[in-house]
Amino acid sequence: xxxxxxxIDNLSFGYKNRTLHKGISMSFPRGKVVAIMxxxxxxxxxxLRLIGGQFKPSAGxxxxxxxxxxxxxxxxxxxxxxxxxxxxxxxALFTDLSVxxxxxxxxxxxxxxxxxxxxxxxxxxxxxxxxxGAHSLMPTELSGGMARRVALARAIALDPDxxxxxxxxxxxxxxxxxxxxDLIRTLNDALGITSIVVTHDVEETFSFADYIYFVADGVxxxxxxxxxxxxxxxxxxxxxxxxxxxxxxPFHYPAADYKLDLLG
Amino acid sequence: xxxxxxxxxxVRSLSKLGSDFIDKVWRLGAGAxxxxxxxxxxxxxxxxxxxxxxxxxxxxxMSLVIISVSAFFVGMVLALQGYNTLQKYGSSxxxxxxxxxxxxxxxxxxxxxxxxxxxxxxxITAEIGLMKATEQLAAMEMMxxxxxxxxxxxxxxxxxxxxxxxxxLFSMIGILGGxxxxxxxxxxxxxxxxxxxxxxxxxxxxxxxxxxxxxxxxVACTIIALFEGYDAPPTAEGVSRATTRTVVTSSxxxxxxxxxxxxxxxx
Lengths: 264, 267
What we know:
The structure holds two protein chains of two kinds.
Chain A: E1 4-15, E2 18-29, E3 33-37, H1 44-51, E4 59-64, E5 67-68, H2 74-81, E6 84-87, H3 99-110, H4 115-128, H5 144-155, E7 162-166, H6 174-191, E8 194-199, H7 202-208, E9 211-216, E10 219-224, H8 226-230, H9 235-241, H10 258-263
Parallel strand pairs in A: 3-8, 3-9, 6-7, 7-8
Antiparallel strand pairs in A: 1-2, 1-4, 4-5, 9-10
Helix pairs in contact in A: 3-4, 3-5, 4-5, 6-7
Chain B: H1 2-40, H2 43-47, H3 49-59, H4 64-86, H5 95-133, H6 136-142, H7 147-186, H8 190-200, H9 203-231, H10 236-266
Helix pairs in contact in B: 1-7, 3-7, 4-5, 4-7, 5-7, 5-8, 5-9, 5-10, 7-9, 9-10
């Protein structure tokens, strides 16, 4: 058994004529919470999709438990995905199913468990995220934070080895944010899983992550433990951590000369 | 100077034409690929037939009102127009045959398919498009559940099952509408209305051919609706455009296929 459950090795990827990643390498040790941070559009979510085998890298490789993801056939990728859970940015709950049926969905689709056992498991998963009492509600009746927690219960339905979170705090109020923060850490430690969190929320991430990667311009700009990164003097990290509007990442999108644009 | 500008415009128009053509060919290929994958993944739909039954309810049963009301009025108009013409030749008793043949051979399958594209096809496209936009399909993929076998295939088979049944109901209700106008309202003999219909409507040539048409239209309308939804850009505008394309493409394909099928059936 390798020490790192997920390894990204010299990975490059891009869409059509836009290169997103230029030789990125990362490793995710078992049982740890690792965050991937960076500005919007820096390809953080795409990294999760590459780990899940939804995209193929143009160079390099992603290994999950020693197996190269893009070399697997469809069956092999599905086998790997059964060991992963993913929390999508907006929850991605199935809107035609109730909260209960959403959490039961992976169990009904991927296992032969009897309905009585599924019932108990669903209520246990919902209890873990504090929403057992909401099992009969429809997704449209939930707040953003509740929807995210139901999606989390669904993601851990089959006890995955790896949990991936795509912007878990986006659009949440401070209370929901604190709840999700706490859940990520608690579930990680209680279930003994490995968590990969893609986010750009500095304070929350620094409070629960074991290790952080910063992605900028398609490469890993910095990496380290939260306490080390907070002291970092690297201009990009300083700008990002302290939320300064100008710095290595400019305020203005590249444009022609302002005077020339206005006066012609 | 002017000549070079004209040349640039010409080159741009030509390159746009070329890129539009490539895009259309690409979409045709992507649609055919989805159709192939869907057929391969259909085993799951038959093993868990309740998934198909649920979709038959949404596409078929929920379309019953619009189909029934339309069929009733189409049948009544056919009887009125038919009587107006037939009585000039002294053969108003043939009104039953006219109504039945028009419905069973043509109007039943064609109008049902057009209404189906407008009522059920748009609903399918919007639903799949929104599932894609809200990452529900991606979530399913990440759970190792194939959206093609879980979402696309059951809806396809539901459409293929529902449309011929709706077309048969359309013809039956249309004939009833025609009867109500021809017999109680105009006063055509009831015995002549039914007996001429019984004598002149052929099982193989009229009814079976009508059923074949409605099955083909069911396949075409449903796969177009599914593909448009599956291929829609995940934005509000993308889903709205895809929904419009479903109606336009389905209607044109149904009318074109009707001509092709009819020419094969008559020759």
